[in-house]
Amino acid sequence: PPSAAANLRPGAEQKVVFITARVHPGETPSSFVCQGIIDFLVSQHPIAKVLRDHLVFKIAPMLNPDGVYLGNYRCSLMGFDLNRHWANPSPWAHPTLHGVKQLIIEMYNNPKINLEFYIDIHAHSTMMNGFMYGNIFEDEERFQRQAVFPKLLCQNAEDFSYSSTSFNRDAVKAGTGRRFLGGLLNDTSYCYTLEVSFYSYILGGLTSAVPYTEEAYMKLGRNVARTFLDYYRLNSLVERPLTPTPKTR
């Protein structure tokens, strides 16, 4: 249809969701979550079509390819924890971060582009479930707005825990993507770290843990993507399959 991908026409205003993953090479679950997001967004699912028409998704699925190739757990080829170098990445020592940061700054400076979300996907070795880290702001109203997306995700994903989601400004984390971009971008942008457990999740009301599988990680990714539909209130645009109308008594 002619309306499709109107947001990609030259000069069109764009709402951008920027997603990165695997800055820590050992956190393999982050790749499966990211794969779930990508597979869903490029699918023929009616929700995916609506999302593609209204949003632009920029995804860097592997920020540390050399570390992954070497089998490192946390560092790059040169021994850097890349997630501590966002403030001043060197094109020589941290080329992937440097490239992604340049792209984000270009978009931020483009008046036709609204960079609305930045989500960096990680895996957590001690906590259960999926959860998010957000930033702390002095502005109470901005702080409340930041909680909306994780609350909606909690409704869509049974393995996502809002109670484990936290907002912090720990000095140790100052060089992370979430913290650095949270300080750089303006107050209409939301920056999160999405964490998912290495091993299991506990569903509400149950006490026994359910081990994560590759499929369960990808399902969390699909649910992250679907949550943008609720966030932007695009539900009414999704084509519903025709169902027979129930007979009234």
Which structural traits does this protein have?
protease; 8 helices; two-stranded antiparallel ribbon; 249 residues; alpha/beta; six-stranded mixed β-sheet
Would you write up a description of this structure?
There is one protein chain. The protein has a single domain, classed as Zn peptidases (Aminopeptidase). The protein is built from eight helices and eight strands. It has helices at residues 29-41, 46-54, 65-70, 95-108, 140-146, 148-156, 177-184, 214-231; strands at 14-21, 56-60, 113-124, 130-134, 166-167, 190-197, 200-201, 210-211. The strands form two sheets. The chain has a six-stranded mixed sheet with strand order 2-1-3-6-4-5, with helices on both faces. Strands 7-8 form a two-stranded antiparallel ribbon. Helix 1 (29-41) crosses helix 8 and helix 2 crosses helix 8. One of its GO terms (molecular function) is zinc ion binding. Belongs to the peptidase M14 family. Keywords: Carboxypeptidase, Hydrolase, Protease. Pfam families: Peptidase_M14.
CATH topology: Aminopeptidase
Percent helix: 25-40%
Structural class of the secondary elements?
A: alpha/beta
H/E series? EHHEHHEEHHEHEEEH
Uncertain segments: none
Strand content: 15-25%
Number of helical segments?
8
Count of structural domains = 1
Radius of gyration: 19 Å
The side-by-side strand order for the widest beta sheet comes to 2-1-3-6-4-5
Mean pLDDT over all positions: 91
| CATH class call | Alpha Beta
- CATH H level: which superfamily? Zn peptidases
* End-to-end Cα distance: 40 Å
Please summarize the sheet with the most strands.
Answer: 6 strands, mixed
- The number of E-state strands comes to 8
Overall geometry comes to globular
